[in-house]
Write a structure and sequence with these properties.
Helices cover about 20% and strands about 20% of the residues. By secondary structure, the protein is α+β, with helices and mostly antiparallel strands.
């Protein structure tokens, strides 16, 4: 129960029901939906990565979007274009044992993959580069990412 957080629905505020759940950060990059129409049996991570690079074009920064895994809600304070996020629907999480308020930067970031074992949206990016964002990282600097992973 070490990583379990307690929070309540704002919609059912009168019920007093609290959810106790492990919270994890799920990340998405612009254009990573290029993998949605494929399986790893149909296309390799490298081929998808190449298609993604063509799709996003010659950009220096790619925005990182954040959601709470399993709940699908946008992580607070991460997307200026979104009017509703996790805190629109739930109270601020507190640690289930200690009662300490959640620091969003301490949540674990989900690893993604693109292989016969798993086919995550955008998993080809982590599969090819070995990179995943730091918690709540706002952008990825493409020239640095490409240089670091040796992609030409």
């Amino acid at each position: 129960m070490d990583d379990t957080w307690s929070f309540a629905s704002r919609i059912n505020a009168g019920g007093g029901d609290h959810t106790h759940e492990t919270l994890e950060l799920e990340w998405f990059l612009d254009g990573d939906h290029v993998s949605d129409d494929y399986t790893p049996d149909e296309i390799s991570a490298e081929a998808l990565f190449d298609r993604w690079l063509v799709q996003i074009g010659d950009v220096e920064e790619v925005p990182v979007r954040w959601r709470i895994l399993r709940l699908g809600e946008v992580v607070p304070f991460t997307d200026d274009e979104v009017t509703e996020d996790f805190l629109s629907f739930y109270t601020w999480p507190v640690h289930a044992e200690t009662g300490q308020k959640l620091n969003w930067l301490t949540l674990p970031v989900v690893s993604k993959g693109w292989s016969k074992l798993r086919a995550d949206r955008g998993g080809f990016i982590q599969e090819v580069t070995g990179w995943k964002p730091s918690p709540l990282q706002r952008t990825v600097h493409m020239p640095s990412l490409l240089k670091a992973c040796g992609w030409n």
